Amino acid sequence: MQDLTTESLALGFGRCKLQFQVPALSEIEQVEDLAGKKIATSFGSIAEEYFGRIDIRLGTKTVVEYISGSVETACALGLADGIVDLVESGETMRAAGLKPIGTIMLSEAVLIASSSPKKPYMLSVMEQLKSRLAGVAASSKYILCQYNIRRTDLTLARKITPGRRSATVSSLDDKEWVAASSMVEKDKAASVMDELQKVGAEDILLLKIDNCRV
């Protein structure tokens, strides 16, 4: 499958981890401690390949049992010594009395494309789709910060809001002042406003970005 497709764009959502989880009170502290034991998972092929390498190295035989749904209950029901399952926040696993001891991979939603497209005339459509999705992804991550500041303090403000490429600066009727706007990351917006205020910025606004092209 990997030879047939290429990753075209990371979409920035659906992030999770494929992890090894064992009972919180278990003495098992690392993945190798599960070698030779029973593992429950919905990702049988991945788990078998992973433990296959460990078994060869340690001379053990790990049993991987396929379970569809509610994998986190397998240990409590006595069906397995550990599990391999997708974890987002980890709350479900903690509620089931489990703890993480290792991560196989990190995952997120991505746009994929064929490595050998059979319809070349569709390439322009795919590029347009990619551009639109990238715009939506960026708009969910960034917010527009606008403020007024004295020209003499603009250099300090630009260090706080450099923008993706450069801040937009416009003159005001009062020649000593300018208006500036810049895209900033949403999760840093409050701190950015605080820092701008410290260097003399006024009328600081945050504006939602519904869509964009970046």
TrEMBL record:
One of the protein's GO biological processes: L-histidine biosynthetic process
Keywords annotated in UniProt: Amino-acid biosynthesis, ATP-binding, Cytoplasm, Glycosyltransferase, Histidine biosynthesis, Nucleotide-binding, Transferase
Pathway note: Amino-acid biosynthesis; L-histidine biosynthesis; L-histidine from 5-phospho-alpha-D-ribose 1-diphosphate: step 1/9
Stretches assigned to the ATP phosphoribosyltransferase catalytic domain: 6-133
Any matching Pfam family: HisG_C
Subcellular location: Cytoplasm
Similarity section: Belongs to the ATP phosphoribosyltransferase family.
Name the record gives this protein: ATP phosphoribosyltransferase
